[in-house]
Write a structure and sequence with these properties.
Oligomer: single chain
Helix content: 40-55%
CATH class: Alpha Beta
CATH architecture: Alpha-Beta Complex
CATH topology: Lambda Exonuclease, Chain A
Order of helices and strands: EEEHHHHEEEHHEEH
Length: about 210
């Protein structure tokens, strides 16, 4: 995992030195796995006013701080609090950004939350919209890239963690989606190879077609 990186929030780009590295959402959008419109909807959901406020409220709760929330946010925050209480989840990382590496290929990621779920290390993605299969692949990248106290190999880190996408709902009741397909790791790795190639050569094709 790289300790020296920068992030451009406007372009949603991670860089190591002068090199721009692929971000997980960009990989899903350009790798051919998911229709671009679906991934773009995920991004817009998070960047929408409600999405930002919900993520902020959950983050502040994770780190033990109180916030002033719009009344629309409260049922989604209640969903998160209820999940933590009922599932015995203890957050350890919240809104955590880093650049990870698999097979010498770096990629950027922002993990909504990681911690201990009923005794097991777990990475979570928080949604206010629907959950789709590609979220399992995205979480595979998080699980494999995040440093582990015991395991150094990406596959071992992936296997050691649970992956959960949590739909926070207006009803105040969360909907839990567990992802358990081992193949998600290999799908993510394939996306990383394709995305790294595209980052390396895209400029050449763009210049040629200008």
């Amino acid at each position: 995992m790289s300790s020296a990186f920068s992030f451009d929030p406007g372009a949603h780009e991670y860089s190591v030195g002068t090199r721009v590295v692929p971000a997980c959402t960009w990989m899903l959008a350009t790798g051919g796995l998911v229709p671009f419109a679906r991934v773009n909807a995920d991004v817009l959901e998070r960047r929408s006013e409600l999405g930002r406020e919900v993520h902020l409220a959950c983050h502040l709760h994770n780190i033990g701080k109180l916030g002033s929330y719009d009344k629309r946010v409260k049922p989604y925050l209640h969903s998160w609090i209820l999940f933590k209480e009922k599932m015995n989840f203890t957050p350890e990382l919240s809104e955590f950004q880093t650049v990870a590496t698999i097979n010498a290929m770096p990629y950027g990621m922002q993990i909504d939350c990681a911690g201990i779920l009923d005794g097991s290390e777990t990475v979570l993605d928080l949604k206010i919209g629907a959950i789709y299969p590609h979220h399992g692949v995205q979480l595979a990248g998080y699980a494999a890239g995040l440093e582990h106290k015991r395991w150094a190999a990406p596959l071992a880190r992936f296997m050691a963690r649970k992956r959960v996408a949590l739909q926070l709902r207006e009803s105040g009741l969360p909907k839990i989606s567990m992802f358990e397909e081992k193949s998600d790791f290999y799908v993510f790795t394939s996306l990383l190879y394709v995305s790294t190639w595209k980052k390396q050569f895209d400029a050449m094709y763009t210049k040629e077609n200008a």
